[in-house]
Fold this protein.
Amino acid sequence: MGFLFLNHSIISIESARIGVRDLSLLRGYGIFDYLRTHQGKPLFLTEYLQRFYSSAEKMGLKIPLNISEIPSIIEELLQRNKFEESGIRLVLTGGESNDAFHPGTPNFYILVEPFHHPSQSDYEHGIKVLSKEYGRFMPEIKTTNYLPVVYFRDELKEQNAVDVLYHQGGQVTELSRCNLFYVKNGIVLTNEVGILKGVTRKKVIEIIEKHFPLEITSFTLKDLYEADEVFLTSTTKKVMPITQIDQQKISSGEVGKISRELYEMFWKLCDAHVDQLTTVR
Ligand SMILES: Cc1ncc(COP(=O)(O)O)c(C=O)c1O
């Protein structure tokens, strides 16, 4: 039996209930955040909680708990669910709405799920992604609306692709659940407008700043097609090479040296981060 935290207490997942008039169901009005454990400990918890609270504020929704109360709840959920590695999902809904328009009192829950790393073969060979014209509404907020990627799930499978890459008139923003980087002539480039500011992105930028020239800019699909390397960052995929976009192979179609090095450096950073945590803060 699995356990989650719902509003005020930890209960079994089977007994958890949310009203059918919740604005998240009726209008897709809700936010969430997602982090993982590394060696069994929540990784970069402070950063994820800050983003979650900031998303709530920007959406005009109130989380019923103080930010300082969350870490001990997560610790208890990890102990009770007992997965080797976990994904931790914090969700805040629009709440039960009388008129199907105005938010009610939000429902807040924390789910702990088993976490599975992407396959080793994806890191060795890189992944394929499909470009789609789309722009997220208020992209800096982590809303629960992932409509396009769920809609394109069959096409992704048929094309042996892993994710959709969003652009507007060729101007690239991000992938459905990941941030984008590319390498051209030894310089690493990434964007900052029209995206969710990923926690992984932030950590990888800090690493890049110490080891490679970095440019924060805007870029197009054409820039990516002509890049030496393309890679994404996300909580689940960490630093994942992209070796094909649509029918276009990136450079030789092989995983690039800088993508590989950054993956290793990021993994070491995760090790170092959890080593200095004695208990969950
Ligand atoms: C739209 C979007 N962009 C980027 C990311 C990557 O962010 P993070 O590194 O914090 O997982 C996510 C994560 O789910 C996302 O949903």
